[in-house]
Request: fold
Amino acid sequence: MERKPIIEFKDFSFKYKIQSKATLHDINLTIYEGEKVLILGPSGCGKSTLMSCINGLIPFSNEGTITGSCKVNGRETKNLSIFELSKEVGTVLQDSDAQFVGLSVGEDIAFSMENEMVPRKEMIPEVEKLAGTVGMQDFIDALPFDLSGGQKQKVALAGVISDKVNILMFDEPLAALDPKMGLATIELIDQVSKDKTKTVIIIEHRLEDVLYRPVDRIILMGEGKIIADTTPIELLNSDLLKQSGVREPLYITAMKYAGCDISKNKTICDIENLELSDDDKEKLMAFFHEETPEIKKEPGEEVIRLENVSFGYEHGKNVVKDVDIAIKKGERVAVVGKNGAGKSTMAKLITGIHRPGKGHIYIGGKDYKKFTVKEIGEQVGYVMQMPNQMIVKDIIKDEVELALRLRNISEEEITERSSNALKACGLYSMRKWPVDSISYGQKKRVTVASIMALGPDTIILDEPTAGQDYRHYTDIIKFINRLNSEYGKTIIFITHDMHLAIENTDRAIVFADGEIIADESVYSVLSNDEIIDKANLKQTSLYRLAKKMDISPEKFIEHFIRYERMVKSGE
Reply:
């Protein structure tokens, strides 16, 4: 049976009106009806621009110059309106704030049904069903803008699934979701893709998480061009991921460290059903028993303490409950847990944005009740989860320099500090660009650079890797780790990224429903099934590989990290 082309690019290029160079170059791509396609590539490579060409945001919202052809269902997109394209294409945007139209979660999910004049008696049970599908059944009456980043993502997902469109696009759908919900989302997208009248396009850089369920094709992009149009197994067996700055799955890295030949393994794309040969097992066991240097670090004096802290946005409804935490100078701590568990609220309490309803918070040994937010900010920097909540200037350089100027620092020092932060975050060459012209992931880096430029003793980063490709993730984390190792800065990561936690922290504080359910070594936390389940986390692929080897996941994960640090320190 001949496949029907549903999306066709031919010799297609696009240049934004505000830029001098084209963002997309010579795109030739055909996606067929019923396909499930992953568009992969580093931040700023053109993935989201390509998506905007398909759904009509380009050229109707984002002006620019188009050459070549882009067709959806056989019709040129430039000759259609956004309204006409919305009948064909549904999109879950990476920046969910830009997507909400309803005054409540229920209204937002029901938006497309209301436009189709679905009777209310049919609409209400359908909305309840969709809300339950994404785990938001208890928030139907809530204001979308009061939700956490992950909860917003779930609502946007439910709203698009309710559309009766045949092309569904998901732009970084995992960016703000807790690990367990991320897996459920990939599962949900996979279920949608089983309807062969639906064409599903996922735009992501988290290859390991997306491959939790199979995809038909992977389109690898770089610098506005298509580098490869291939199958998952062919991509994993090539060097293209490394060359493109995209992270390969951790279990693949472990097998390569062990000297396994993955090219002979037909199940290599699927950790759940991965089959290991006797030779693979022998090599992995030898790798596990190699000697690696022990990781030792002595933290300094206490810098932050929370004593019996509780807080609620509504009277009688605490979202943080009787929390006790002590963090010492020089520590690297991961705060993990499911969406809405209280992680970001805790950060806002520490930084004085909110003040506890009960209990005490100490910064540098002093009760911070009399400190202003600005005074706290000079000691504790906070990079918020949603970049649009922080950015106020139009130009990248101006945004990074803003807080320094408010502190009356000399021009010479402002230039030096901002330049160093921009370089560390891979933004120096873009410093004069308008903020509106960059991707969500790049905006995240702008906010990180703004806080880094201030140089506080403790830095809290709320989902710093959301929307970041591996190359820029590595640059930022390397810089942050250098601040920790060379300058003794205390680093607190609020994260759903299990890779970030195991590779860059030594201690994990686990939240569930506003309470701390664990505070111990990160290896221990990520190997404990009970904690994983309660906190909506997920085992890493290293955990699954260790289980297949019948060895301790905790010891295997720790060994892998020790080995990786040894390898990187020798580079």
Notes: The CA atoms of residues 179 and 537 lie 5 Å apart. The chain is about 40% helix and 20% strand. The two ends are 52 Å apart (CA to CA).
